[in-house]
Specification:
- This protein has 8 helices and 6 strands; from the N terminus they run αβααββαβααββαα.
- It is an alpha+beta fold and about 230 residues long.
């Protein structure tokens, strides 16, 4: 049985007892990384990115077997998976679970998306501070809110969720400054931005100038948002 390091990269290599897989070791790692989500990118996964480029067709085929599609942005050097868009009456099982967003989560996503657009315009990295995010989200506190501590927790939870899903990466040597992941541009479409902007306006009108930060189910975050 082939189990040594030299055999790991060969197609059809037996990697463990009873292994009937056909993909090389590194290709399997790329596939698993994509399934774990939310993204695979050249900077954070420098050893896997070249493997994705080399074996993109076979990886795409394996994902199609699971009714998943591979999205690769060569410019941003980011890849992710999403559910296939079946154009027939097929009963396609859904493997990926959407990430439910509260209203404050959605506000934060739009804010970070806008920072990405601004940074691109100036040819810079999109960097935000904890204070930037906190101050922006504070604008959406409901008028007359008496539970300041609860609202502060909602803000903190939204920022933490963005970090957990790799949409924010802490800058080296800083505890309160983060880089916004370019992935957000791919999974947060222009249509989603427009839809959320309209939603904010509606909630602003209904609350007479103050926005309710309570949870709502929102699927505008993009096809790649999955756990």
């Amino acid at each position: 049985m082939q189990t040594n390091g030299d055999a790991r990269g060969a197609p059809g290599s037996v990697l463990f007892s009873g292994d009937v897989g056909e993909l090389p070791y590194e290709t399997r790692r790329v596939l698993v990384r994509l399934l774990l989500g939310p993204t695979l990118d050249a900077r954070r996964h420098s050893k896997l990115w070249p493997i994705l480029a080399r074996d993109e067709s076979v990886i795409r085929a394996r994902l199609h077997d699971l009714f998943l599609d591979l999205v690769v942005d060569q410019g941003q050097q980011v890849a992710y998976i999403r559910q296939v868009d079946a154009e027939t009456d097929l009963d396609v099982p859904v493997l990926l679970r959407r990430l439910p967003l509260t209203f404050i989560d959605s506000v934060l996503m739009l804010f970070l998306r806008q920072r990405l657009t601004q940074a691109d315009t100036h040819g810079e990295r999109a960097v935000v501070s904890l204070q930037d995010m906190t101050e922006h989200l504070a604008n959406y506190e409901r008028h007359g809110n008496t539970d300041k501590a609860k609202f502060a927790r909602q803000i903190a939870n939204s920022i933490e969720k963005a970090k957990e899903h790799s949409l924010l990466s802490k800058l080296r040597g800083s505890d309160d400054r983060f880089e916004v992941s370019p992935t957000l541009k791919l999974v947060f479409s222009a249509d989603a931005v427009s839809a959320l902007s309209k939603l904010y306006a509606q909630r602003m009108d209904s609350s007479e100038g103050g926005l309710d930060p309570g949870p709502i189910q929102d699927d505008s975050s993009g096809d790649a948002a999955h756990e």
